[in-house]
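Q: Structure tokens for this one, please.
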Amino acid sequence: MARALAACAAAGAIGGGMYLLGPPPGTEPESPAASPASYGRVGQEVTLTAPDDSYEFDLGTRKVVPADTARWYLARDGSEFVLPEDGDAYVADGGELGPADCVRGVDTEPVTRIAFADLADERPFCIRGADGRDLVVVWLLEARADGGPVTVLFEHYRRE
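A: Here is the predicted structure, written as tokens:
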């Protein structure tokens, strides 16, 4: 560091231009509060079944509740999931999806609709809460497009 400062002083003394450059765009270190690695798992994974579209999944409590009663929810309409209006969602390309992948995905490839057909081959998806503090990773285990039961597996994470 001392050599670099001495070189800058010498360049300035002989009339050379000096420019202080930061890191290249997109390479700035993330703040610890926004780091996907700072998400910790909340409880155990849970499997839930909603009997029909008159019920939804309450993502915060990880329970099945009557439709239109949860603040942060995952509902269904026919053959697709209905996402919270104030949250972000992302569908993974493969079978693995963790908090870091979810955060990257919702920031670069967010989705507003998730059809059951888009989740073939056990593709998980995630939903990040409006405040960015909570996120869930979801796997569709079973669904009937005719309005019958939908079974999902949830993993809940919270930023620490």
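A few notes: The helical segments are 2-13, 99-108. Strands lie at 39-50, 55-58, 63-66, 73-77, 80-82, 88-91, 114-115, 125-128, 134-143, 150-159.
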